[in-house]
């Protein structure tokens, strides 16, 4: 039997746009995953929780334009802590030109506005 996927979901920095992250977290939970929802956090706290909760995936949300700094920082700290197997995904308003640069910096998947919940669930389920 496959183990349940454990995913930490957080909004990067002081991003005040909460609705999308809540909707995605609930959809992942309803799809049978264990979701640890943090709300607004900085990279160090997100990584500390991922380690403490033995997360398989870290899901980040941002609409405030901090994605090029804070999302790669989450990846960097995870790798520094030996958590190479933890996938980091990102959702929010990400300019298309930033997507290849973010993937180069270790973001496994990026979901923009209008991405279906099914696509997100299917993508996350594929990491198990």
CATH homologous superfamily caption: Cobalamin-binding domain
Number of strand elements: 5
Order of helices and strands: EHEHEHEHEH
- CA-atom Rg in angstroms: 13 Å
Assign the structural class, choosing from mainly alpha, mainly beta, alpha/beta, alpha+beta, or little secondary structure: alpha/beta
CATH class placement: Alpha Beta
What percent strand?
15-25%
CATH-defined architecture: 3-Layer(aba) Sandwich
Low-confidence stretches: none
Query: Sheet bearing the most strands, described?
Result: 5 strands, parallel
User: Which percent range fits the helix content?
Assistant: 40-55%
The helix tally amounts to 5
The best one-word shape is: globular
List keywords for this structure.
128 residues; alpha/beta; 5 strands; Rossmann fold
Provide an overview of this structure.
This protein is 41% helix and 23% strand. With 128 residues, it is of the alpha/beta class. It has one domain (6-125): Cobalamin-binding domain (Rossmann fold). β1 (6-12), α1 and β2 form a beta-alpha-beta unit.
């Amino acid at each position: 039997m496959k183990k349940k996927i454990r995913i930490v979901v957080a909004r990067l920095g002081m991003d005040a746009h909460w609705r999308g992250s809540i909707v995605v977290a609930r959809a992942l939970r309803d799809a049978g995953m264990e979701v640890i929802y943090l709300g607004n956090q900085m990279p160090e706290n997100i990584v500390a929780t991922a380690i403490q909760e033995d997360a398989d995936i870290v899901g980040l949300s941002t609409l405030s334009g901090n994605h090029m700094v804070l999302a790669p920082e989450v990846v960097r700290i995870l790798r520094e802590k030996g958590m190479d197997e933890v996938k980091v995904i990102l959702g929010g308003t990400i300019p298309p030109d930033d997507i290849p640069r973010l993937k180069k910096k270790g973001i496994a998947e990026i979901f923009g506005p209008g991405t279906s919940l099914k696509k997100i669930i299917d993508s996350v389920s594929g990491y198990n």
